[in-house]
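Q: How would the C-alpha cells look for this protein?
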Amino acid sequence: MENKKPDNQRIDIWLWHARFFKTRSLSTKIVRAGKVRLNGQKITKAKTPVVVGDILTFPQANIIRIAEVLCFNVRRGPAPEAQLLYHDKTPPPEEIQKAEKSIVARRDRGAGRPTKSERRATDKLKNIFPD
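A: Here is the predicted structure in C-alpha cell form.
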C-alpha cells in the first residue's frame, strides 16, 4: 500500500507538518484565536482546508510569517523535508527594521515633556526670579 499525498489538508495539520509550530495543539490554538490569515481572510476554524497556492500569514515568535503552500505531506517529517512544503515570503529582518525606522513618530516643538535643555532653561529662569 502506497501513501498518496492529499490535494488539500487541514490548516492546523499543515502548519504542524511544515514545522511552524512544535505541537498540533499549539497550531490549532493559534488558528482558533484568529491569528492566521488564509489568502488575506482571517480564519478561526482549524479544520479549514488549504490547497496548493494558498498564502498563509501568521505570527511566529516575534515576527509575522508569510508562507505559500507548495505541497502536502502525510507525516511530520524532518526539517529539510518540511521546508519543501512551503515557500517562505517573509521579508528579511533588515527590511522590516528599515520600514519601522521610517515610521518614527515626530514630536512637535513644545509638545510633551520638556527636553533636558528646556528643563535647564526653566530652572535658570526660576533662579533669576525667586518666589
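The longest helix spans residues 116-128.

The beta strands are 8-10, 36-38, 41-43, 49-51, 55-60, 63-69, 86-88.

Upvote if useful.
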